[in-house]
């Protein structure tokens, strides 16, 4: 069905199509539509359950950050069968992001290039939306960042503000230091600034009655020594997990004509071309840490096989964004059903048994 309407959808500017999906999702996620959407798309099976980060996930597949930046259609996305939803990146103050157009489809590669630059309605708006769905039992992670005008030297204060404001409504907090579209943000992945940032957030966190799991999201463009640093820092600062990966600034191995790639310009590349690299990083992190730190795997997941590959490489949970654009709203159900088939093929009783099996 989606494959039939996709060519029409793809005629519309990518960001306008996305805006329409969020607006429609805001309506369809509410009564009386929600049970209907759920009956079409949800899929449950005990074997898909994953217990990690102190929570019980109904299935391992989440919606990645960036899709519902302001938490405005959360109930809808949960009804599509995702086991958890990551909202954000949320910045303290509202900001418009970069000039449009800023999302481009590279259809031949089943990829996207975006340079949104943290367009965010700010933490106050996200808070209102998160309060609204508080009792719905959805597992929500909140991905936080800094405003563009905040220099890196003052970044901690932005992350602290978002953390203080939103932690009560988040099952986990994701510290995003890997978007390529906020100038100098990725420099916060380096040893000193990352240690300082995570220590600062943890200092606030450990003052809470119930500390939240803190995770850090990294770029696929880090080398092995930088990945080793991330693991050391994760251990030293006692954070609970690493998300691998964000979008890449590289344009290797694409089949889209060069002129089209150049016309899209700068930004982060996501989708199928990212799949292999992000899986390699997951495997590296799992091996080096001997499975000690939970990994959330993201990058180029379109099929059950793609999700399973990342889980077997060491991801406890997985997420997708671009796959939803290309495959449509049935993707979570298809992947979850397919995962069961793959478990049966390999004689495994649950997803939990598959984690790191092929690391
Ligand atoms: C249009 C777009 C916007 C995104 N915005 C964010 C964001 O705000 N914060 C973030 O951490 N990641 C963001 N991402 C990255 C995704 O969460 C994900 O890490 C990346 O796209 C790789 O997964 P995929 O290949 O399944 O899309 C965005 C991705 C896209 C395509």
In short:
The chain has 359 residues and is an alpha/beta fold. Helices cover 40% and strands 15% of the residues. It has helices spanning 2-9, 14-28, 34-41, 74-79, 123-132, 155-166, 191-205, 224-236, 258-264, 275-289, 304-313, 322-327, 331-345, 351-354, and strands spanning 50-52, 55-57, 61-63, 84-90, 103-106, 111-114, 140-144, 172-176, 214-218, 241-244, 268-271, 295-298, 317-320.
Task: Give an account of the 3D structure.
The structure is a single chain. With 359 residues, this protein is an alpha/beta fold. It has a single domain, classed as Aldolase class I (TIM Barrel, Alpha-Beta Barrel). The chain has 14 helices and 13 strands. The protein has helices at 2-9, 14-28, 34-41, 74-79, 123-132, 155-166, 191-205, 224-236, 258-264, 275-289, 304-313, 322-327, 331-345, 351-354, and strands at residues 50-52, 55-57, 61-63, 84-90, 103-106, 111-114, 140-144, 172-176, 214-218, 241-244, 268-271, 295-298, 317-320. Helix 11 packs across helix 13 (331-345). The radius of gyration is 19 Å and the shape is globular. The two termini are 36 Å apart. The model has no long low-confidence stretch (mean pLDDT 94). Flavin mononucleotide (FMN) is lined by residues 64-66, 69, 88-89, 103, 112, 114, 116, 143, 176, 179, 217, 246-247, 270-271, 274, 298-301, 320-323.
Which characteristics define this entry?
359 residues, alpha/beta, TIM Barrel, 8-stranded parallel β-barrel, 3-stranded antiparallel beta sheet, 13 strands, globular, binds flavin mononucleotide
